[in-house]
Amino acid sequence: MESQAIITASLKQDTSPAAVLDVSNAQDFEFSSAGDTASSTISSRRSSMSSFGSNHDHTTPLELGLVINALQTSLTEQQQTDEQEQEAQLKRKPTSATCTAQAELSEQAATVLPSTTFRSKGLKREQTVIVDYELDHGVNAVTAATTPKERSTTGSANVIALDHVDLKSVKPNSLTPREQEKADEPILNAIHHLFSNRFMKAKRIFEEHAETDPLHALGLGSMAFLKALMSNNKHSSDNALKVLMSTYSIATAQIDNSTKRNVGGTVVQFLSSYCNTIKFSRGSGVPTKVAPAKPKALETHKVNTIPNGILRAHIVKAEACLQMAILYLLQESITGYIKCGLNMRRAYSSYSVVWQEYKRMGQLHNEYIDRDTISGIQFGIGAVHLVLSALPQKILRVVAAFGWKADKHLGFALLKLCLENRRARASMSSAMLLAYYTTLTSLCPQILAEEYTQPAIETLLDAQKVYPNSTIFLYFAGKTSRLARNLSLSTQSFVYSIETSKREWAEVEVLHMCNYEIGFNHMMNNNWQEAAAIFQGLFKEKYWSQPIFKYLTGACLDMMGQRTEAILAFAEIPLLMKSNKSSSSSNKNSNTHGIEQYILRKIELFQSSGYQDMSMTLCALEYMYLFNAYEFMQVDQLEQNLALTDYALSKILEAEKLEYGIRTTELLPETPPPAYYDQRAALLLIKASIFNAMGRYHESVIHLNWIMDHKEKITTDNWIVPFAFWEVGITSWNINQKARAQGFWEKALSYTNFDFEYKLAMRVNLALTKASELGIVDGKAEQALSREYEEYEQCETVHQSPCGSEILEAASDYEQEEEDEDNDKKEDDDDKSSTKSLNSDSTAHTVNLPHKIADKIEQVVDQLRLNGSKEPTIAA
Known about the structure:
It is built from 42 helices and no strands. With 876 residues, the chain is mostly helical. This is Tetratricopeptide repeat protein 39C.
């Protein structure tokens, strides 16, 4: 039980990172690993993955298993403590019938451990958590059903808002670095509470000075930001943007008030540093040519430095813009990308001001800048580089905000340095690294799994030394376990994430978010009944998108053989779409819009045949393909899906034989000739992807060739052909034809206006970046990349973006909304002029390559031609 004591000690030490989660003896080792033998065996194939900048060797699945078992013991003790407290309350109040009934129900729910409740009864797990939520908040089942208004008022304490901010009351910050660190100790405690699941304690600390201090306001904004990411809800996202904008205004007001009182050398130095921000940011994206001032000059005040309070406010201002940029980026729309770029530009401008001062102070920076501000600059610039390095050229052209190239290696270095220093942004650095590793590996597991899975595990284990039962890091434990193909451990981690968030601020959001991941895990395990139950529950709770969850419910029912129930579920989707459009709360720029349009076209295709052709389409397997599920599945499940695909293909063959048989006996029959090109192409693409996931790459060649032979006849599902080019590239990459793979991926980028276009662009960008790092160059790919780069470099401002008038209109509208203060207008003008100066000579280095016509390819895909065209070639 020593591991329990270590966890308890770590919870009591709010600011100490010394707690370590380990195994003290052989008995504890046997106890903790007994339940994970099967999981360790399944994941052993991934245990030898390369370590990214690590000095220690871990046994991957076993370490994660120890963490989960220690958490199970901790949760059991917490439940026992809750039961004892409830019994004590009953003894003190034996006459209250209502309290007695609620206590009995609470005891009943608490005695069921997640490991025994879940398994094949996923819906009961969800219902149990919801019942506990209602009891913990004083809402019983009857009042919840009859008086929804009362339920909403009980959650009013969870609302985060900064509505009544008087910017005139924001005072200048004249504290020295050491005084500032002392004053910010409550902030460090609040951050520890936030990542230790004590959300309401963190919220109360942040609220104390949120209307006057930028860092307190940023704490509230970060909480709203995390809630928006978890809820996938427009209202939560709008609220987070509103709070972060208030934070931006508070930080700007403090900077303005400070500079007004110090009209002299400090202002001159500040303005000169600001005007040179983007000029110094060429190349690596940070000011690298800033000469450190001499120590004697600093000590004798011959060199004017920006006060620490102004630098601190700049970091808060930049981080608020960074979080707003991420929220806009996740909207996956043209307008969202433009707003992302404008906010990213603002963020980097403020970060550069502080970075120049940091470099200019040299080794004496700790005497002039507090450590939490240094932590902020490390986190901020590192995060900006990682985010932008993952974006494809299609998105960067729309953003069009920078004249420098993002450096992901610099981003990794700064975030890891921030993490090692264990100051205010260390926890956010861990979360950013985990989000980067898990998101990018999920997008492109075929290329990045071996590189990023091990670093994700090591980052997770490092975070759990300080936060052993953090809801946030348990969620990432579930995502990381999935990358290691350990779906049982992944599901267990998500269940414990739900458990640790009970009776807290983001309980419902965590419940919904983790239940979706659990349902997706069930789909990958071919547990269709459990998945359908979870998706139906999320549909009733109105989480994320009702049409999507109704579609997933119907898809799982169809896989169970319940065709009638599946058709009834699909029939509801068009009505749900109409209600969403008419609803004032709908958001056409939401990240669900693309998926919903794909689903609607799929339903319309079914309805056109009276649902007679559903046997030729596997909706669940198609959805899993689009989200790269096959790369995380075991061989047994892949074999089952392969058999289902063959069965669906046989149905197409039967229909074709029947229809051609009619044409041999009747003259000019009314029945048109069979044309199941879309259905067959989708099934063959799924089959090829399964073969690639199983390592049987040569068996996928014939199926991909068929798609390429008939690509002009695939007219309904316009996403199939570009995704087929992606899959051809994966096949080529794994049969030692990596140079040719680049050409196929570039061909995929030449298609536009299809479902999941930006998702595929992200995948291709990651794959091409990896190929470039390995030094693999293909002539055709280099030519295409040169054209893409030339267009991007020639796009000097947002007004020259090739996206046309839509971008101009959206950008001008957004800038008009945000230009409330003269200082903001000046910043935007400086940014645009600096970007122009950067791009004026950028095309001088562009490589002009001669145009080449691709020869006929003779091996993997004989019929495929690379014509270098940038226009869509999907035939009507």
